[in-house]
Design goal:
single chain, 7-stranded mixed beta sheet, mainly beta, about 0% helix, 11 strands, about 120 residues
Length: about 120
């Protein structure tokens, strides 16, 4: 069966860094776009980043530009989200997901397929 498992979440101080991993099993991640999303309590789910199947198009929401970076290691069937200079507003459950492709203009993931269960990131002093 297809499965995505996130890891790497935890408690971190403001200004700190964290790397999230998204491990796929049962299918090859290289065939899909990969997105990272987050949801804080009482807030809507938000698209954070997306990387295309060929790494040719990358999207970041404005609030994380310059701080977060998305990548993939096809040999390990794993995607990553490196998060630097973390802020209180970054606190959320982070989810990874596969998608059929990306929007031509923006690079946002489109045609979502499979979702992980999430990993909690808490930014606190």
């Amino acid at each position: 069966q297809d499965q995505l498992v996130e890891s790497g979440g935890g408690l971190v101080q403001p200004g700190g860094s964290l790397r999230l991993s998204c491990q796929a099993s049962g299918f090859n991640l290289k065939s899909y776009a990969i997105g990272w999303f987050r949801q804080a309590p009482g807030k809507e789910r938000e698209a954070v980043s997306c990387i295309g199947p060929d790494d040719g198009k990358i999207y970041y929401v404005d609030s994380v530009k310059g701080r977060f970076s998305i990548s993939r290691d096809n040999a390990k069937n794993t995607a990553y989200l490196q998060m630097n200079n973390l802020k209180f507003d970054d606190t959320a459950v982070y989810y990874c997901a596969t998608a059929l492709g990306v929007v031509v203009g923006s690079g946002e993931c489109a045609g979502m397929l499979n979702w992980g269960k999430g990993t909690l990131v808490t930014v606190s002093q």
